[in-house]
Amino acid sequence: MSLKVLPVAPAEATLVFELDQARALTQLHRWGGQPLPLNASCWVRDDSDTRAGPRELLFVRLRGAAAAVESACRKMTQDVPGTRLDNAVTAPDWQACRDLRLPFFSRPAADNLALWRLSVPQTAPVLALPWPQLVEWHGGQRWLWAPLPAEAQLRQAAAGAAGTATLFIAPHAHDTGATARFNPLKPPLDQIHLRLKREFDPVGIFNRGRLYPDF
Predict the structure, then answer these.
(1) What pLDDT tens digit does each residue of the chain (215 aa) get?
(2) What is the C-alpha end-to-end distance of the chain, expressed in Å?
(3) How many CB atoms lie within 10 A of CB 37?
(4) Which residue, 7, 89, 113, 142, has fewest beta-carbon neighbours within 10 Å?
(5) CATH (domain of 41)
């Protein structure tokens, strides 16, 4: 067994900015090109405050040397007005984001919606899709709830950004039918993978129907 471990960062800070998705992605790209200790990010539309209305928020976590984190906080809040949050308050939220336990992941708007994960380059622009999204990994991962018949539209949007779309959670008690869980492979990779699967799993026991609808 080989275990790779990393030292615990001596300092950590979470900043929140009120930005729409396009501005949030643009700012993340700018910060990503600078020597800043960026560790994690999450952009989401917050509908929890019914009186104030929905807010579009970008959360950014910084980790590293104390001087580097403090310097980054000053610079980033000068670039864009933002607020520094208490680490004790944000730690459970970051863990919930990692484990897909944020309200976005647990409460789909309708029973017929599936959870899709679109993996795209971090520099990809806002995807022209009608469903609300949660954006992670500095723009590299886009989550959304959409119906199964939207598969072609989602895969086309992901492919247009040089990415892929994965059916992460199917609708409750709904048959996914011929919808592939993973982005279909292009020739000749599809045949290579299919032959490998048949060699290792000749009777189709494992993950049946996830990559190939009938195997």
Answers:
(1) 999 998 889 999 999 999 999 999 999 999 999 999 999 999 999 876 667 678 999 999 999 999 999 999 999 999 999 999 999 999 999 999 999 999 999 877 788 899 999 999 999 999 999 999 999 999 999 999 999 899 999 999 999 999 999 999 888 756 565 567 777 777 888 888 888 888 988 888 887 766 666 66
(2) 33
(3) 18
(4) 7
(5) 3.30.70
Residue 3 lies in a domain: no
Quick one: CA dihedral 134, 136, 138, 141, positive or negative? negative
State which residues form the domain around 209: 185-215
Residue 211 and residue 155 share a domain: no
Which pTM value belongs to this model?
A: 0.84
Residues 77, 136: one domain? no
Say if residue 93 is in the same domain as residue 112.
Answer: no
Q: What's the CA dihedral at 173, 178, 181, 187 to 10 degrees?
A: 180
